[in-house]
TrEMBL record:
Gene3D superfamilies found in the cross-reference section: Leucine Dehydrogenase, chain A, domain 1, NAD(P)-binding Rossmann-like Domain
InterPro entries hit by this protein: Aminoacid_DH-like_N_sf, Glu/Leu/Phe/Val/Trp_DH, Glu/Leu/Phe/Val/Trp_DH_C, Glu/Leu/Phe/Val/Trp_DH_dimer, Glu/Leu/Phe/Val_DH_AS, Glu/Phe/Leu/Val/Trp_DH_bac/arc, NAD(P)-bd_dom_sf
GO BP term (any one): amino acid metabolic process
Protein name from the UniProt record: Glu/Leu/Phe/Val dehydrogenase
Keyword NAD: yes
Protein source organism: Dactylosporangium aurantiacum
Glutamate/phenylalanine/leucine/valine/L-tryptophan dehydrogenase C-terminal domain residues: 140-349
Length: 352
């Protein structure tokens, strides 16, 4: 993939040989403000895979931040390596120096493979970092409001599909019981939903069995997708919605926390043809970025949660627009995000 074939403003390769750091920072757009997006620490099969992921994720962050109503652009970073083996203070601090070198064009935060404690280390080298621990004045674990926002988006989708903004009595399948999936399970059970779940981690499966014994656990995502569900919630890595899964999917709503759920262009049309209502991932999972963005101005949880609650209204607006214009929800969401980036970006240009 050639970087110049994309619409990204800037892509930075970061290499620190002594610590072993190999990272890529991608800034998709600063039309709305400095780019904000997390740092993913993952053992990619190749450099090309790492580049492909960071380009996709940074674009998604630009659209997510736009629809979340934030005055922030979109960016993302990936660190190529195994976080269980390669992560160290020296590596994280080296990464922080690269973030600092961008002079505020990019704010980083947590993502897959990184945690608030890691952001505290990164912050030793840069002030352009959010998602820090509460003991350091940060917002803490952003998965709290990510899950809350997914739940709000799911409620809006339920209202659009069934006429009631509740999951009570509905059967919801969660693929991935990580940081977000655990909180989402709690929201759904409190709302009266029946939850079915799967995870590749035995520790996560043991957690849900001991904490919520009423949750049905299935062996694989393939089993979950083919199960008798009302709602399917992908909450692990991207690409969950592909030709194979959509063909056997029995749920009538898809609303989950994973980024880049559509494996390729055209999947959104396949979902629509099968009468599956798709709540766009970057809309419903934006609670986390709302939480860490609030930290930039001095974190207040109540204020951030109030902002995250608006995900219900944004999801409802997108689903109504999609129905009125006869397009898939993903297309309607893209149009709204692009409109805000263009309109506000134009104002920023005039002011500058």
């Amino acid at each position: 993939m050639g970087v110049f074939t994309t619409s990204h403003e800037q892509v930075v390769y970061c290499h620190d040989r002594p610590s072993g750091l190999r990272a890529i920072i991608a800034i998709y757009s600063t039309a709305l403000g400095p780019a904000l997006g997390g740092t993913r620490f993952y053992p990619y099969a190749s450099e090309d895979d790492a580049l492909h992921d960071v380009l996709d994720l940074s674009r998604g962050m630009a659209y997510k931040n736009a629809l979340a109503g934030l005055d922030l652009g979109g960016g993302k970073a990936v660190i190529w390596g195994d976080p269980d083996k390669d992560k160290s203070e020296a590596l994280l601090r080296a990464y922080g120096r690269f973030v600092q070198s961008l002079g505020g064009r990019y704010y980083t935060a947590c993502d897959v493979g990184t945690y608030v404690q890691d952001m505290d280390v990164v912050a030793k080298e840069t002030r352009f970092v959010t998602g820090r621990s509460e003991s350091h004045g940060g917002a803490g674990d952003s998965s709290v409001l990510t899950a809350y926002g997914v739940f709000q988006g799911m409620r809006a989708a339920a209202e659009h599909r069934w006429g009631t903004a509740s999951l009570a009595g509905r059967r919801v399948g969660i693929a991935g019981l990580g940081k977000v999936g655990k909180h989402l399970t709690e929201h759904l059970i409190e709302d009266g939903a029946a939850v079915v779940a799967t995870d590749v981690s035995e520790r996560a499966v043991e957690w849900v069995r001991s904490t919520y014994p009423q949750v049905d656990v299935v062996d694989s995502n393939q089993d979950l997708v083919a199960a008798d569900l009302d709602v399917y919630a992908p909450c692990a890595l991207g690409g969950a919605l592909n030709d194979e899964t959509v063909a056997v999917l029995r749920a009538k709503i898809v609303a989950g926390a994973a980024n880049n759920q559509l494996a390729h262009p055209g999947v959104e049309k396949m979902l629509a043809e099968r009468d599956v209502l798709y709540a766009p991932d970057y809309v419903v999972n934006s609670g986390g970025v709302i939480q860490v963005a609030d930290e930039i101005e001095g974190f207040n949880f109540a204020r951030a949660q109030q902002r995250a609650a608006r995900i219900f209204d944004t999801t409802r607006e997108i689903l109504q627009l999609a129905e009125a214009e006869g397009v898939p929800p993903a297309v309607a969401a893209d149009r709204l995000a692009e409109r805000r980036m263009a309109d506000v970006g134009r104002l920023r240009t005039i002011l500058l």
